[in-house]
Amino acid sequence: MYFGILITFLIFCFTHRTFFKEKVLLVTIPFVLYYLIGLNAVEQNQTSYEEGSQNVYGVIQTIPTIDGDSMSMRLKSNTGEMIQVQSFIYHQEDQLKMKTLAPGDACMITGDLSKPLPPTNFSQFNYKQYLLNHNIIWILRPEQGGIACIQGRAELLNLFQRFRQKHMMRIVDEVDPSFSGIMNALVFGDRNNLDGDLLKAYQHLGIIHLLAVSGLHVGMLVSILFYVLIRFGLARERAMEIMIVILPVYIIFAGAAPSVIRASIMAMVVLLSMRFRKKLSPIAGISLVYLGYLAINPLTLFHLGFQLSFLISFGLIISAPTIIQKYQHPISQLIVITFLAQLLSFPLILYHTFEFSLLSLPLNLVYIPVITTVVLPLTLLAFLLSFFLPAGINLPLLVLELVYSTFHPLLLEVSDWSLATIVFGRPSVIFVAAFYGVILIGCIKWENGTRNWWVAPVTIFGLLCFWQLSSPYFNPEAKVTVIDVGQGDSILIELPFRRAVYLIDAGGTVSFTNEDWRNKRKPFDVGADIVIPTLTERGIKKLDKLVLTHGHLDHIGGAMALVDAIKVKEVLYGKGPVEGEFERDLLLRFIEKGTQIHFVEDGMSWSKGAAYFSILSPKGQEHDLNERSIVIYSNIEGISFLFTGDLEEEGERRLLSRYPGLEVDILKAGHHGSRTSTTEIFVKQLEPQLVLISAGRQNRFGHPHPEVTDRLQEFEIPVLRTDLNGAIELRLNKEQLKVRSALNP
Fold first, then answer.
1. Cα 606 versus chain centre, distance
2. How many CA atoms within 13 Å lie on the side-chain side of 340?
3. % the chain with pLDDT above 70
4. How far apart are CA 553 and CA 625, in angstroms?
């Protein structure tokens, strides 16, 4: 392939020599070169391993991340492949042993090799692609007691990593928890020790970049060290040479994220040009860094941090002489720089997070100078003093702990303000390109400085935002989405033209232990980590109805996360006693938020536009929670559905007795396809054309039961299952049905 591309390129050069030399040379050569480099990088993702249980020998490459009863790290095997290790920790003693593991240790790990799944929901982070971009194909899950490591002879890189690991752990042990995570982020570029809710608040408010080691940190470090070296009597040339040697080491200490690599190498390029008195324009310098970075690691191009770091840097460098320097006052320049950075990042952030914080610009205007001039210098000073002083008399550290213990609760409260964020939903690639086109035109007009230059770009930008926000209200299709929440239920219904949005259940995670050492900094929550991102990706800011079919946690556990994140107008709950403590707390939280609670029973119904919904169960006298499930019959765009919650055989017989003529097009199987549901007589009467089953992969209950799947196969009824197909989306329009699933699009 490479040879064919090269021959084609040479033929083009020979037949179009004049045009090639004058117009295409500088563009074509880099394009072809980097295209070949990229192809080569993709084709290097080959493996000598096979899926299944085996022994893997290798050397630890990254600092193990331990969070409660889980551990992850990267291992370079003896075949040269990088493997992601994800281990469950069975005992607290094992957790203590895991904390002694370090980069450079040689290990034999017995476990199961498997390839990561692609996203099983439409809004989900693509972890498989993320690993592939780091040349990782396999995930290794060790069996109990399957990790045996010895301290190997560490290479220089591993020694730096061990120093980094040792002092990150020291900060966690010695520094107040309100600041230890921030200190590790600012000094070492590691956010693993940050409290999960706090990290989410920084992300939600658009200030997460303040915790990433970037140009601000590198510039501050270079300035301080350069000044110190000069004060010690070194010549400027020697000081520059020392800084050039120190910066690569700093890249390792700071975590080697794209932003710190970009900033450090750019600083090295500037220092080299100053040292040898060669004038190098900023745009040429950053272009060299960009091309060099991609030549070494071409797949980094797909890293969001890389994209944002270089995009904003290119934009600010280009704008510096034509826009930023128009403003002489430092505060004016700060506002312009912050605004440009926010503007350039807006379309990319929107594409990946589906929302934008209105507080991002004012918070950045306040915190960028505070972090740069106060927090970062004090943090570096506190870290250096920690080698000589105990934490109790380390004055800079005491000041920072006091400030952050007061500041962080305020930040958490502000991040919960519903009006602070606009939910746009995911824009298409065309819209992202259109956004950047308008930004480019606006910056050109700003640079020219004509009268009222801002009117046209601001108007077009506003129209694009308006269209992105309002497009669901022009969509004539209805959507029914079975969200993949593992072993649980969650079904999203969007009516045509966004007349109403309903959610039936919100999944949930059942916890089987209360041991403190197992607690994670940010425990996985189905509502926060799956359901809310699904709603946000669709641009959904409120639910007209939340149907909680019954009180089992795998159906209502995720709803607690919705209380503060999504406006819920009405909750439907089955008639009968509210027995569980979690159920009572959940309903009370919704009442406090102004949500109406309606206890529903057989015979109730409602309609919205042409869509019709009827409650067929419960009666309110059922003793079993599953049999008390809310069962909903609906007709949407001429297609009928039956949503059954966890209804089992007794409830199915009751439905058949009360509604002897009941038939549906699409059935959501009861109780995740358990043996005691979706009975033969029930299926025969309903005659569904499609059955949907929501069940977790390899769940411990064996759902769906083979008897149920065999029965449906015998009746020649198509089945879609979340454990096999991932999330399932049905698009309905005038009795027409289109189906797609996350794993089989």
1. 37
2. 25
3. 95
4. 11
The candidate with the shortest Cα–Cα distance to 258, out of 289, 303, 325, is: 303
Please say if the pLDDT value at position 528 is more than 70.
Answer: yes
* pLDDT tens profile 685-718: 999 999 999 999 989 899 999 999 999 999 999 9
Residues 6+ apart with CB under 8 A from 525: 509, 558, 561
475-510+525-741 CATH, one of 3.10.129.10, 3.30.360.10, 2.60.40.3450, 3.60.15.10: 3.60.15.10
> What angle do helix axes 429-448 and 330-353 make, rounded to 10 degrees?
170
What is the model's pLDDT at position 511?
67
Amino acid at 92: Q
Cα radius of gyration rounded to whole Å, the chain: 29
pLDDT of residue 32: 76
* Cα dihedral value 715, 718, 720, 724, nearest 10: 80
How distant, in Å, are the alpha carbons of 123, 188, 399, 573, 617 from that of 482? Answer: 13, 41, 50, 20, 21
Mean pLDDT along residues 97-124: 93
> Quick one: which of 135, 142, 133 has its CA closest to 114?
142
- Enumerate the domain spans of the chain: 2-43, 53-151, 164-426, 430-473, 475-510+525-741
φ, ψ at 95 (rounded to 5°): -65, -40
Encoded tokens for 670 = 């009861």
Decide if pLDDT at 2 tops 60.
no
Q: Tell me, which fold does domain 53-151 have in CATH?
A: OB fold (Dihydrolipoamide Acetyltransferase, E2P) (2.40.50)
Mean pLDDT of 42-68: 89
The two structure tokens encoding residue 124: 């989900």
The CA-based angle 401-405-411, given to 5 degrees, is: 130
Q: Which two tokens stand for residue 605?
A: 């119904």
- Cβ atoms 720, 737 nearer than 8 A: no
Q: What is the reported pLDDT for 3?
A: 47
Exposed, middle or buried: residue 728 (CB in 10 Å: 0-12, 13-18, 19+)? Answer: buried
Q: How far apart are CA 652 and CA 734, in angstroms?
A: 30
- pTM, to two decimals: 0.89
pLDDT average, residue stretch 325-350: 89
Cβ distance 207 to 364 under 8 Å?
Answer: yes
What was the pLDDT predicted at 288?
85
3-state SS assignment for residue 417 = coil
What number is the average pLDDT over the span 589-605? 95
Smallest CA-to-CA distance from 102 within 20, 146, 142, 157 is with 157
In which order are the strands placed within the sheet that holds 736-741?
596-600, 570-574, 545-548, 501-504, 491-494, 478-482, 728-733, 736-741
pLDDT number for residue 547: 97
CA distances for 646 relative to 148, 555, 676, 694, angstroms: 44, 9, 10, 11
d(CA 631, CA 601): 9
Residue 27 is predicted with a pLDDT of 64
Between the CA of residue 601 and those of 291, 492, 559, 629, what are the distances in Å?
Answer: 65, 21, 21, 10
Q: How far apart are CA 670 and CA 635, in angstroms?
A: 19
Concatenating the DSSP letter of every residue in 652-704 gives HHHHHHH-TT---SEEE-GGGG-TTSS-HHHHHHH--SEEEE---TT-TT-PS
Q: How many residues does the chain have?
A: 745
